[in-house]
Design a protein that fits this description.
three-stranded antiparallel sheet; six-stranded antiparallel sheet; Jelly Rolls; 157 residues; mainly beta
């Protein structure tokens, strides 16, 4: 079940790891960190070892025709838009028609789905994507645009 909204909405998740992740977003000077990030040059920051870590990314959104539904098994994603706007496609694993090969080192598989929903995230908004939420992020709304995003990986306990 994907959850979308502002940081205040996301704070309603109660696990200790979620609180660490959201406190990090709320209490970190994101502008300073993004000075070290550029297109194709992400930055990874450990918050609580490999239990909770952040990936800072800058990229140009892509056309929906380039969307690939991805899934994870070991981590929950908290995706937070710092600057820009994008849409994310999402489908429950129950809508999967073909599961892609799973890369356990990257905790990643690209799978095919029968259909999907989509939602828009703008600066200051985020979403929580669980392992049962296949998703295709980084999709443009009307035209490609530059986005600054933080993806926080929270280990599934």
């Amino acid at each position: 079940m994907a959850i979308t909204g502002t940081l205040a909405t996301l704070y309603k998740q109660s696990s200790e790891h979620f609180q660490k992740a959201l406190n990090y977003l709320n209490n970190t000077n994101l502008e300073e960190i993004f000075k070290e990030v550029s297109i194709n040059k992400p930055l990874e920051v450990e918050i609580d070892g490999r239990q909770v870590f952040a990936i800072f990314q800058t990229y140009e959104t892509k056309a929906i025709s380039e969307a690939k539904m991805e899934g994870h098994k070991k981590y929950i994603d908290i995706q937070y838009i710092h600057k820009g706007v994008e849409q994310i496609l999402v489908a429950p694993t129950s809508r999967m028609v073909k599961e892609g090969d799973y890369d356990s080192d990257k905790d990643l598989h690209f799978s095919k789905v029968a259909d999907y929903s989509n939602f828009r995230l703008t600066a200051g908004m985020g979403c929580i994507l669980y392992p049962e939420d296949l998703h295709a992020p980084c999709i443009s709304i009307d035209a490609p645009s530059v986005v600054e995003k933080i993806v926080i990986k929270v280990a599934v306990l």
